[in-house]
Design a protein that fits this description.
The structure holds two protein chains of two kinds. By secondary structure, chain A is of the alpha+beta class. Chain A has helices spanning 29-42, 47-68, 121-128; strands at 14-23, 76-84, 89-94, 131-135, 140-145. By secondary structure, chain B is an alpha/beta fold. In chain B, α1 runs parallel beside α2 (56-71). Classes of the chains: A alpha+beta, B alpha/beta. The A-B interface holds A 26-27, 29-30, 33, 48, 51, 54-55, 58-59, 62, 66, 108-109, 114-121, 123-124, 127-128 and B 19, 21-24, 52-53, 55-57, 59-61, 63-64, 67, 84, 88, 91-94, 97.
């Protein structure tokens, strides 16, 4: 189960990094996710862990594009991946939007919401990653995988 | 994502190949389901054996399709989702909403 965490707790020696700038439109997400996938393969991340990270990134990018950029290609989403000396991976996704309140990421497994066709993205991220931190009023999400 | 649809015993069998995620993939599946339902078809088998990942938008279209199909007296049944896709569906609590089968034959037969 993920929890809020401080980046100050993480070792700072970065052994590998990737930075992407993505147009704020839905059609740009797939290529960015594929770049992340390629990087994770290059880092020899085990398959199951790679899939978990990739899906979490996919969800974060989708939120950034849809809610942060309002699917506006003139706006930009930033996605950074860092691997630390101890193998931990940090992925940061940020957008120029106003952010959102953590109270808005409610439990989609509640009986009243189970049949909804949306509202599962942030919940999935918290289930897939080991630690998740929302910064800058929610317009930035920092996700760790150990 | 590639979508192949064929009709068997009054059931639309939808074979997906690729990631079911936000964008064209989800839009295309939604359109496929909607077009079939407009023509009166409400029984669907969705084969997920070649879908390595389903994101929350993909889950949304599956749930929405199931709800719509049931309103018309039909259903959406899943075939052979990958281990990771099953895990994802289970994580958000929707796997139990669907009947899941190992192959198309079993899924189609279940409608009779």
């Amino acid at each position: 189960m993920s929890a809020e965490a401080s980046s100050a707790d993480q070792p700072r020696l970065v052994t590998s990094a990737l930075e992407l700038r993505i147009k704020g439109e839905v059609n740009a997400i797939a290529a960015a996710a594929d770049s992340i996938s390629d990087k994770l393969r290059q880092l020899q991340v085990p398959e199951e862990k790679r899939m978990e990270i990739l899906l979490a990134v996919q969800e974060a990018l989708a939120n950034a594009v849809v809610h942060g950029c309002k699917d506006d290609p003139s706006k930009e989403v930033r996605c950074c991946l860092e691997q630390y000396a101890n193998g931990r991976i940090l992925i940061v996704v940020s957008d120029p939007g106003p952010g959102y309140s953590p109270q808005q990421s409610i439990d989609p497994k509640h009986a009243d919401r189970l049949h909804h066709d949306h509202g599962r993205g942030v919940y999935l991220i918290r289930q897939l990653m080991d630690d998740v931190l929302l910064a800058h009023n929610g317009s930035e999400i920092r996700m760790w995988k150990y | 994502m590639d979508i192949n649809v064929r009709k068997r015993s009054h059931v639309q069998v939808v074979q997906l190949r690729g990631q079911l995620r936000l964008g064209e993939a989800v839009d295309d599946l939604q359109r496929t389901i909607k077009d079939s339902m407009t023509e009166g078809d409400a029984r669907f088998v969705i084969n997920l054996s070649e879908v390595p990942m389903i994101d929350s938008s993909g889950i949304g279209v599956l749930v929405r399709s199931l709800t719509s199909a049931k309103k018309q007296g039909g259903s959406v049944k899943l075939v052979n989702p990958s281990t990771f896709a099953q895990k994802t569906l289970r994580l958000v609590g929707v796997l139990s909403l669907f009947e899941v089968y190992e192959d198309d034959d079993q899924a189609v037969a279940s409608f009779n």
